[in-house]
Amino acid sequence: MSTSPAIRIQGVRVDYGSFTAVKGLNLEIQPGEIFGLIGPNGAGKTSTFKVLSTLLEPTYGEVYIDGIDIAECPEAARKKIGSMQDLAPVPTDLKVWEFLDCFAHAYGLNKADRKTRINECLEMVDLSEKRNAMCKSLSRGMTQRVVLAKCLLHAPRVLLLDEPASGMDPVSRVRLRDIIQKLSQDGVAVLISSHILTELSSVCSHVGILNHGELLDYGPTQEVTRRMSKDNNFRLLQIKTLGDPTELTRFLDTHDDVLDLTTIDSKVCFKFSGTPETQAELLKEIIQQGIAVTSFEETETNIEDILLGLNAPRTERSPSTANRSKS
After folding, report:
1. Farthest-apart Cα atoms in the chain, separation
2. Under a CB-based contact definition with an 8 Å cutoff, are residues 99 and 90 in contact?
């Protein structure tokens, strides 16, 4: 087995005319890592995936898959890659096994090996009973799992998953997580891009934060979350009240240090950009307003909070608030 990183990206830049989608990306992913690439829309995730799957040549930079330079030896690199695009189409006029057989043949498996491998991959994605079903009869979630089975036929060492849980029900998502973890244990490097952030945080050993084409941070999930939380310059607070929290939200909405208010039943959640002293003063002022507070607590930042923080200056905060957040 190769001792090289499963994925090594050096100085990759992707330009579309005058627009730069990826700016000097440097990243290494080791065998067995489950790496979540996260960022808001337009961060450069799709362009990065296209480069890694050899569908797009970078403007400049180098990419190695299991030690193979994809620019010099793209065919050899593709043999190492399984790539699953979001909502990849399947032919409606083929049975599931026929669809998989076409790709197994393209991967160079002989007839006997194709049958065995098709059965193994269908079992991995828990669709053995659908072997003879027509592809057009599959639900969206089942279709996603069939496409995943197709990606596993040639036993890739690198698996690229773009929105893999799209259309899957909760049971299928749990099954997908189990499959990914099993592949990781077998030394497969898995790179995932997904908007289902709770799925990422529960399955990924490592994450990278991509924004406007730049990799802000990457590493073990908990370490990145901790570092990015410190950089966000806000704390997450939640307050529970007796009864309707409308009076509380009206009061908080006038406070300069309160950002991104959301209300769920009697609980009000928000970002607070003030100091510990002003946080204590805030609680004092709320009580002075006669608002019945049953709890006032600070919560931990997670991956979703980090992504919302990246989005907030452009989509959720007023101009004055955005300026405060950058100070």
Report:
1. 78
2. yes
